[in-house]
Amino acid sequence: MTPVAVMVGANRIVPAAGIIHPLGNTELSPDEEKALRRRIVEKALQALRTEVVEPTVFGGE
Amino acid sequence: MNSLRVVCYLNQFFGQLGGEDKAGVGPQAVKGAVGPARAVEQALGGAGTVVATVRCGDNYVAEQTDKAVAELLALVAAERPDLVVAGPAFLAGRYGVACGALCAAVQAELGIPAITGMHGENPGVDLYRRQVYIVETGAEAGRMLAEVGRLVALGLKLVRGEPLGPPAAEGYFARGVTRHVLAERNAAERAVAMLTAKLAGRPFASEVPLPDFPRIPAPRLLKTLEGATIALVTDGGLVPQGNPDGIEPLNATRYGGYSIEGKAGLDAGQYDNVHRGYDTTYVKQDPHRLVPVDVARELEEQGAIGKLHETVYSTTGVATTLAHSARMGREIADKLRQAGVDAVILTST
Amino acid sequence: MRLRLELRRSQVNALTAASATRLAGQRLDVDVDGLRAVLEGDPRLARLRIDLVHPGERCRIGRVFDVVAPRAKLDGSDFPGVLGPVARAGDGVTLALDGVSIVLTDQQAEHAAMLAVIDMAGPTAALSTFGRTHNVVISAWPAAGMGRAEYLAAVRLAGLKTAVHLAQAAREAEPDAVQVFELPSPARVPAELAHLPRVAYVFQIHSHQRPTGVDEGILYGDPVRRMVPTILHPNEILDGAVLRGFMGRNATTWAIQNHPVIRALYAEHGRTLWFTGVVVTVAHATEPERVRSAFMAADLVAHVLGADGALLTKIGGGAPHVDMAQAAAQCEALGVKTTLIVEDMSTDGSAEGMLLFDFPGMDALVNVGSGQHRLPFPAMERVVGADDLAMKLGGEMNATYGTLCGAIEQIGATNVMAVVE
User: 0.90 cut: is pTM over it?
Assistant: First the structure.
C-alpha cells in the first residue's frame, strides 16, 4: 500500500515483497528468501543515506 | 434573564503585566475586565459582565502545562462563570496552546462552555480544535473589537444551548469530527448532480475533505551507515508469545518494545502475531518475513551498519486511528532518540 | 435492435396470509403454506418458516442476510443464471411490486453480532427502507451437514423464488406506474444531443476480500472470480443480471434491483448528460490484479465508452475503497472527470480518518455516512427471524448504523450522510 505511505508523508519508502510476507516469499527456498530480504534491507539502508525532499519511493524489485 | 458571569483569560502581554520579561509570571486573577477583556464586555452588551480576568505568563503555562491549567481552573471556578472566553491569541503560539488547554479543561472539568480564537497557523488550532470551539482570527490584534465580537457571539450561543451552523458560517475551525444527518436527496442523486457540476466547470462542495497530512521534513542521516545505530520497528503485529503488553488486534492504542540483545534472529517459537488485517500464517512461520533481524544482525557483523539497536518496537496497524498512530510514533521516536538511535527501518504489510 | 425494459410497478399497502397468492387492489394475499411447501423442497434445507411483518409493529427482524425486491418477467428468464436459465436480462416486460420486500435471514451463522436487523417501528424504522415496507421474512434451517456455501446458496434461491412468486400476482393487474428504460448504444448518439457530456458508471459488484463460492453467482450466475472489467447495459442490472454475493454489510440485492445510480443517470439522460453505459468490476485481493483492473476499467470508460465523466461506487470495506480510488485515479489521468460515492471509513468519528486514499483529482466525493457511527435501538415487543437471540435482540441496543439493514447502502440508495464539523 505504497500510495497510503506517500499520502501520509513518509519520506523514504521501499516497496516490500507482499502484504502477507513483506520481507519474504514463500515460493522461494529459505536461502533465496533470505537473499531477497537482504536486498530489500540494503535498499532501505541506501534510502536512509539518500537525501530526499518529499515522499520518495525507492524502486521496486 | 440574569446577566451572565463571564471570565476572560489573557496572557501576560494582553493582560498588561509586561512583555517577554513577564512570560514566567504565575496565574492570578483580577476583578473586572482588563485589556481585551473590556472589548469582550462591550461585545456582551447587556447580556453579561466580565466578573474577572485571569492572567498567566505564556512560559509558565508552556513549561508545566498540567500544573498551570489546574491552578488556572481553580481561579476560574472561584468566579462561578457561565462562560469562559480565552484570548484571542492570534499567531502567538504559546498563548494559543494555553488558551486551548484552558478551554478544554474548563469544559471537561467544570462543565462550563468555553470559547477561544486564534489564527489558522497557531499550533493551538491543531491541538485543540476537536475539543474546543476555536474562532478563526487574523494574525494580529489590529481589529480586536471585531474579532472579539465573533468570539462573544459564538460563546453566547454555546451558553444558551442554541444550535450552531456549519464552521464556515459561524467562523470557527472545523473540529474534524463527523455527525450523521439525513440529506434531502439520496447519495446517488447527489453524486450525479456533483458530477454534472464538475463536468460543467461549476462549483460544487465535496462531502469529504481531502486528508491534509502535514509535510514532515526529511531528516538527514548525519553519520555514515558504518557508524550508525539502526533500529527495527514494525506495525505488522509481531508480539512475544502471550502478547504480554496486550497489544490490540484492531484499533491499537498500545505498542511494545522487545529485546533482541544477543540474538542472531527471531525464534518463531517465541513470537506470535495479533494483526487482524492480513493473513499472518507466513510471518508466524518465520517472523523474519516481517522483521528482518537475521539480515540486520549480519549487516552489523559485517560492519555495513554500526549497531543494530537492541529493542524492536511493534504495534498493529489496522484501523489504528491517526491520533493514536501519531502519538505512538512520537513516543517510540523519543525512546529511540534517547537511546542514541540514528535511523529506523519500519516494516509494514 | 435495442434493449427496452418496461417495468410495470404495482403498489402494495397491505400484506396478509391467505389460501392463494393474489393481488387484490393494493392488498397482497400470500399463500404462505403453499409457498413454504415449495421452498422446503430444496434438499439443502431442513425446514423453513415464513413470517409476515408490517410497518408500525414493534417488531425487530434479526439475523438479516439480504433483502430482495419482488420481480417477475412476464416472459423470459427470472434472475438468469441463478434461478432461471442464462438469458438476456433488460428487455421486455418485468412485473414489480413496491411496498413489499423479501427479507432473508441466516439461521446458520454462529456470530450473530455480525448480522443485521430491521426495525419496524421507532426512529430506527424511519432510517431504513425496509422498516417501511411490508416484509415477507424467510427463515430457513440447513439440512444436516450443509456447509456455509451450500446453505447460503439455498437461502438466496428461496428468496429469489419468493420474489418471482409474489410479483407474478401482478400478472393481470393494471400497474400503478410503468417505467420504460431504453438506452441506445453509445455509438448511436443523435446529432442534436452530441453536445451533452457523456457519463459512465463504474460499478464494483463484488469484493474478493472474501472470495466467492462456486454457487455464489453474481453476474448472470457467474461467481466473478478474477473477473476483469467488462461492460453491461444498465437495463441488465435493473432486470436481475447482477445479485449481491453472500456477504454484504451496507449493501442489499434490493438496492441493486432498484439501482439508484442507474436510475439517477437515466433520469438525466438526454437532458443534462448522455449515459454511455456501465463498466462492472470486482475489487481484488492482490495489488497486481488491482492495478490491472484499474487501468482496464479506465480504458473502457475513456476509450470504448468515450466518457467525459464517470461515477464510481464500491462494495465492501477498506481494500475495495482503495481499489475504487485507483480506478478513479486512472480515469482522471485519462482526462475523465470522476465523482465517487464513499463510505466514511473513520473508526473514531474523525474527519481525517474518512478516506484511505488521496489521489490527484479526487475532489468530488459524496458520502453515505459511516456504518460505524453509534445508533441507539429501542426495545421491541417481538423478534422475528432470530428465535435463539430473542432475549438479547428484543431489548434496547446500543449498536451502529451498519447493524440496521437498509440504513446505509454503499451504492447510494440512502440519505444518511456524514457532515464534518
Answer: no
